[in-house]
Amino acid sequence: MKKILHIENLDCPVCAEALQSDLSKVKGVNAVSVDYVTQTITLDTDNEETVQKVIKKTNKFEEVRVLEEGSTLKKDGKRKEWLTIFLSALLFIAGILTEQFSSGTVGKVCYLIVYGAAYLAVGYPVLISTFKNIIKGRIFDENFLMTVASIGAVALGEYGEGVLVMLLYQLGELLQSIAVGNSRCSVAELMELKSETATVLKDGEWKILSPEEVTIGDVLLIKGGEKVPVDGILLSESATLDTKYMTGESEPKRIKQGEELLSGYINAGGVYEMKAVRPYEDSAVCKVLDMVENATARKAAPEKFITKFARVYTPIVCGLALLLAVVAPLVSGLIVEGRLFFNEFPRWAKSALTFLVVSCPCALIISVPLTYFTGIGVCAKKGILVKGAMYLDVAAKIKTVAFDKTGTLTEGNFTVCGVHVTSVTKSELLAVVAAIEKNSSHPIARAFSTVDSSDYIVDNVTEISGQGLCATIGKNTVLIGNEKLLKGHGFTPPDCDSIYTVIHVAKDGEYLGWIEVGDRLKEEAHSAVQDLKSLGIQRFVMLTGDRYERAQKIANEVGVYEVKAQLLPDEKLLYTEELKKDGLVMYVGDGVNDAPVMSEADCSVSMGTLGSAAAVEASDFVLISDNLKGLGECVRTAKRTRTIVMQNILFSILMKTGFMFLGAAGVLPLWLAVFADVGVMLLAVLNSFRVRIKKKNHV
Ligand code: ADP
Ligand code: MG
Prior knowledge:
binds magnesium ion
């Protein structure tokens, strides 16, 4: 059982790590992931009792609280925090003035009191956390660094500086939490996808229910401006919908009676009725929300690296600082006077403190996951679901894109284009096929949905993935499917000169004829491939179970040069392995037969509406409204995210090392070190927001 708990007051990714390792030790927890950016705990456990234990344990962790189910993060104005900092700053200024203009012991006592008040106003939560963490054996975190630095400064008689360290640090923390909170809110906006209520016809009356209470077959009323609560089909004559939440583009979409409408679409005008075809749990909106919530649990390689890095880094830095404070003065004593003593100890101690302060790795630790999170949010806004930060990383480095044909490059709306018979009449052949196809969810099956097939009773239908169907009608066994299927059963179907998809039909030992079914190319297929080309992807391959002629025709139209036709699902798999030798492969598909290939490819994309549940489950990205334009957007955002992550890593490390040297050399005053630390962190966090900025001039 998977459970997501929302929490608040989790202050940093390092604390998230610590909490995660605490929780993973709780008995009954199979897997747990704590995410700082989304403030969630994703828990996998078998019983409710464990959930309660986890909640209890979480509530004991620092200031962290588990929120009640249903309540989401609110945007608070941080009034209290601002006020505290303002008050502390005033006291600090008062302290400086008192220090300047007072004299004698009374004066000293006065300014010490004022400084002390300023220090405690901002510093007491830090002191308390440090103390609590030391008791628990978790020493090296930022709280510890700041406590040591500020107390050290006071011990050296630099009272003002001690206060300033805490003050600037807290100011930085506040700005950071505002910045992070902002990006969290932009995803919360996305969460508004879900409608609060659904107007449902029950016993002849319109009732207001929650979307979860809607059952399949219910008739719903959607008024102008309302969101569609669950997936359904339109009962009214026609409707215009705004798809901006699902596709990222505010385009009006016109649909007619009987056509499908996804939850999350907004009624752009008028009132219409619809029939629910999926319960809320299976509707598009719910899938989107689930995936976004789960995405952060699958961390990208740089993210994992950073947290590991932080774990060893902080103790090392503390060790170095200690050396600087103890060994350096001894060595300098030895050099200056030729004997062992602490030469210029305060000077070295101060360098050590400065060194400690700048070494704080928060810039990295915060900005990297935040950048990935922003990337996932940007994709979600464009109608692309990303199932984990790690997949964004892979998508950024893709060399080859392999496409399935039917339902992926084509619309999957088949129509019958020709019927060729041997011994039966055309209408008989169609009726037999229609009767069997009623049992299939393959897009081809829909071509026959209007054919009357009431004369035939079909049993024992088996679907042979990538080939067709086998069924019995009365005592006869009927095969319908591609050439491969018939050859496999000892038939030699005729050569069909057709540009369409061909399905052959045979009954017992007798070949009955073939049917041509046509399917249109998706409107955006060509430009989507061009867009991917412009992003530097060079190799495009089409892998299909259909005939070569048909595949080649579609490939020419979209601009894909490599075609592999008549593949069985496992042959698609083998071929994908082959492609992988040439660089990372992205596989785009929709069907049940694509699911194994999707797990094999380095990353995979499925169609959210047309796609089979298995494919949506197996893929790493889902295009909610099946629009292939999403592919380019996806790769583009992935590349952008990765660039910015790398920029942040490089920038923070360079700046930090620079400042650490300055600190060790004693050139940098302590307060400036804190300022630099906060500055680097804020710049990195702000940089991560650039993922959101839309670049003009692309298709
Ligand atoms: P693609 O790889 O292009 O998505 P599939 O692997 O789903 O195509 O199907 C491959 C071929 O198998 C189809 O072109 C069709 O000839 C045959 N086929 C599969 N399912 C069916 C079905 N339900 N009815 C008839 N033919 C089918
Ligand atoms: Mg397909």
